[in-house]
Protein: Nucleotidyltransferase
Amino acid sequence: MSNRQYMAKSVNQAFEEFNINTVNLIKENTDNARRSRDWLIDQLVSFPENVEDFPNDYPEKHIKYGSFARNTKIRPLDDIDLMYCLNASNAYYSIDFSNRNTYHIHTQNSSDELKKLSDNDILNSIKVVNKFVRALKTVPQYANSEIKRNQEAAVLNLTSYAWSYDIVPCFYTVNGFYLIPDGSGFWKATNPIIDHDNIKNTNRMYGGKIYQLVRTLKYWNANFTNPKMSSYLFEVLIINFVKQNRQSEYIDINIKEFFRYLKTNISYDVNDPKNIQGNINNLTFEERRRIHNKAEECYQYALTALDFETNHKSQEKAIENWRKIFGEKFPKFI
Structure:
């Protein structure tokens, strides 16, 4: 990894250099990852035919999801997410009486493949994930790779690339959402298509500038907040900010305004845009207070930077203040 110090003559150039050289994924890596992902999908869809007792799939409902698919992934490219949809074959679900977030999938009328992964006609999600783990180990090209279960996913760590794949088995329901493993043997609801469309439509509505705003701010969250907000919570906060506030054509102004938004709104609950999980802001009062303080600090630096840039015509001083927010990898003034 290069430790080169990039230089810039203006704030706009500094952000452009910063995003290209530090924040955004390298195009060659992205292209390789997409080819590798597509080859993996070809292997997955062959499992029902080539792997003994592997359940049939529902090809139209496989999903490429996560920040890589949403165009909000930042460096390093370390994981890529897939949801592989299985055919329920007349199985049906019910909601747990004691925990409304837990689902059971009943297989008494389903296929033999799903029955073999069930306990007393209740589909065991751990057994389903482990079935994927065993199936992946039959692919000769993955012979030297590390393959294991991690909560809801079968994780494939490739020896030939720096990134891993999280492959999540799922079922599509008649009510339009997906059921995925909950890590404890049961199932939970989700619908990543809503998240994908949410940011895609927001980006289009605001001139294609929102993907970059999200990535730049995610770099800040990943490197300069303590505690770090979950990537998903942080993306939802940014999208909510964009929808509630007029956006400038300049990224530095939008970043400044986001810090003002964050320092207030991190104190409140944040609703899941899928309307499945309810509040997704699970930070404690103390954690919210610390993030508020950090956002306030960065807001003041951003205010100072914009004052130097617009009122004092000092690109140098403006860049110095942005470096206080984004660190040593933010370009210096030349």
